[in-house]
Amino acid sequence: MRAAxxxxxxxxxxxxxxxxxxxxxxxxxxxxxxxxxxxRNSDWSDGTALTSENVKSALERNIEQLRGTSLGVDLxxxxxxxxxxxxxxxxxxxxPMPQFLQLFAQPELGLRRNGAGTGPMxxxxxxxxxxxxxxxxxxxxxxxxEDWEQSFRQxxxxxxxxxxxxxxFEAGEADAVFNGRLLSLPVADTGPLxxxxxxxxxxxxxxxxxxxxxxxxxxxxxxxxxxxxxxxxDTLLQRFSLGGWVPSTRIVPTDLPGRAxxxxxxxxxxxxxxxxxxxxxxxxxxxxxNLSATVRLSIAMPDSPGTDMLFAELQSDFEEIGVTLEMAPxxxxxxxxxxxxxxxxxxxxxxxxxxxxxxxxxxxxxEADVLARSAxxxxxxxxRTELLAQAEQQMLESQIYIPIGAPIRWSLIRGGIDGFTENxxxxxxxxxxxxxxx
Length: 438
Prior knowledge:
CATH architecture of the largest domain: Roll
Structural class: alpha+beta
Strand order of the largest sheet: 14-13-15-12-16
Helix content: 25-40%
CATH class of the largest domain: Alpha Beta
Mean pLDDT: 94
Largest sheet: 5 strands, mixed
Number of helices: 12
Strand content: 15-25%
């Protein structure tokens, strides 16, 4: 919704590529430290001209509002925002970041003035839903043309639970369902009689277990590692009938596009049965040392159609190594918490920043944070890569998070709906869906 009604300097198209938005073009200096944007000749929704000064103010306001979030940590790479001539704005970085435009295209950086954005769509409330209509070409900074309305249709957006959305789709009352996740996948009808198709995005991100409790057995790093070793990632999601899903034992994916590091998966020299036996040995040893009959842990998971399936698989794996896993009560903070989060851009920093101690999301590694911060100010690409690799290794050795694999994102798209393409970011702009088929 925000991306549809409030553009930033740049945006993402339907295939996930960076495209012009409020900035009609830009250049990057040879050292990669400065991005210079030329704003389009356009106005804010209140008729005020778009200038470098008021865009700078709106950007700084957004960045300030994002402090304390992981996206705010990502944006700490910005050194300065400068208003230059009337429609030129410069953003200086602390170090080169090839993925900076991807970061700056995030919906949270859509700009507003007096609460209103610049399109490309206009939103009105309607019976618990939002109706989106295309803004005029003039409002979008384009030449005015006659009969432009005939090229677009309204888009009605409603938020609802996955089961209800899938039922509406099957009944022909919805043309598209977005933001499906692994735990809601069971409601998607993949059979031959389905009125639409399940479309899977090849996304990157985090899918695993955040460790929230540093007491009891989880106080010991070797036991946290034992739990990570005892999960059978190859069979964990079999009941979901997912083809092509690849498990992982690392925080940063080894196949992340453009990644310079050559890190490999952990425990490759140890067959799974041997890993599980070692994990069980550690649990037995802890119980003996602490005169404890059981090791009991709770896990917090969202209430979804597939929750029981995933919980049963995890519970079985934990039981194999001598750990009793229980579901945390709704709203309670478990010893463990399921993390299901999409990457915003293809860089180690995004993954590392998710566990920054300032976010207070669970266990963290101050040492890893220091390394990640050092990488921000390092202009030598090789040294920067080494610092980020060291930061990930520090997190892995601290055992603050148990990686499982990539997240899952699916959509239901009815045949004949144009403007949708699977992409690495799981973001699907609404404006292309408003275009009438030719």
